[in-house]
UniProtKB/TrEMBL annotation:
PANTHER family: COBALAMIN BIOSYNTHESIS PROTEIN CBIB. The keyword Protease does not apply. The lineage of its organism: Bacteria, Bacillati, Actinomycetota, Actinomycetes, Streptosporangiales. GO terms for biological process: cobalamin biosynthetic process. Converts cobyric acid to cobinamide by the addition of aminopropanol on the F carboxylic group. It is found in: Cell membrane. This is Cobalamin biosynthesis protein CobD. Belongs to the CobD/CbiB family. The keyword Cell membrane applies. It is a multi-pass membrane protein.
Length: 295
């Protein structure tokens, strides 16, 4: 299969210009299909979860093959598919909304907005806690929403793009360690870990290349401390690049997680959100350049 490097780059440009489609977003439509499928297949069983993930991810792959064949590998089909699955620009916009709320001291607005970025319970968070949550989310999603789709698009074209986004969406829906999803969501979570293993490390390396020695040092030293096999690599690199300290106590719906700290700097502040968003954009374009160079 010949991958359209031009299509991937054009998709990055479309995302930079427009962000996510405002209406009829295919990823939202996939989420609705997944919700209906879950109602039919759900059982507190790993096997049911394997079937659930297999049907939906496989269906996304078949859809990608059909699109690619109908478009005869056209640049336009690849570009639109890339635009649809990327989320880097929308991620940055959400980060800036949070930055503006914190800069004007509006903690109520910031707490209300935080669920747009992550599942962390915002009610007990002060300014520093909110800033840390946003910086960590921007870091992790630079890999999940920007670099990883480009990697899989480069490897497997439109089917790779759509299957990756299906995997990542299912992980966001059911990949939780709670009584309902610990077994049913196991397959989706493990697929997401596998799909993001290389992209997360590539993202961390690109942060180092774009930022310098300190990002590399913290990436290599602290990335493996995180309970996630992937998120820690990117968060550690961002911590080093921004000169801040990430990690600590997080609360998710009454469940408390204590994560090792990464980086040697101060606690994040509102202004660091803007720096994280800028770094995320630079890394996304660097990833696009790598994809172009390897096509």
């Amino acid at each position: 299969m010949r991958v359209s490097g031009e299509g991937l780059l054009l998709g990055v440009a479309l995302d930079a210009l427009f962000g996510d489609p405002k209406r009829w977003h295919p990823v939202a439509g996939f989420g609705r299909v997944a919700s209906v499928t879950e109602r039919f297949l759900y059982k507190d069983s790993r096997w049911r979860g394997v079937v659930f993930a297999g049907v939906l991810v496989g269906g996304a792959g078949v859809g990608g093959v059909v699109l690619e064949r109908l478009g005869r590998g056209s640049v336009l089909v690849t570009a639109v598919s890339t635009w649809v699955v990327l989320g880097g620009t929308s991620l940055g916009r959400e980060g800036l909304v949070m930055a503006r709320a914190l800069e004007r001291g509006d903690l109520v607005a910031a707490r209300e907005r935080l669920p747009h970025l992550c599942a962390r319970d915002p009610q007990g968070l002060d300014e520093a806690g909110l800033a840390r949550a946003v910086v960590e989310s921007v870091a992790e999603n630079t890999s999940d929403a920007a670099v990883a789709p480009l990697v899989w698009g480069a490897v497997a074209g439109v089917p790779g793009l759509l299957m990756y986004r299906a995997i990542n969406t299912l992980d966001a829906m059911v990949g939780y360690r709670n009584p309902r999803y610990e077994r049913f969501g196991w397959a989706a979570a493990r697929l997401d870990d596998a799909a993001n293993w290389v992209p997360a490390r590539l993202t961390g390396a690109l942060v180092g290349l774009c930022s310098g020695r300190e990002a590399w040092r913290v990436f290599l030293r602290d990335g493996k401390k995180h309970p996630s096999p992937n998120a820690g690599r990117v968060e550690a690199a961002f911590a080093g690049a921004l000169g801040v300290r990430l990690g600590g106590v997080n609360e998710y719906g009454g469940r408390v997680e204590r994560r090792p700290e990464m980086g040697d700097g101060r606690a994040p502040e509102a202004r660091d959100i803007r720096r994280a968003v800028g770094l995320s954009a630079v890394v996304t374009f660097a990833a696009a350049a790598v994809v172009w160079g390897l096509r």
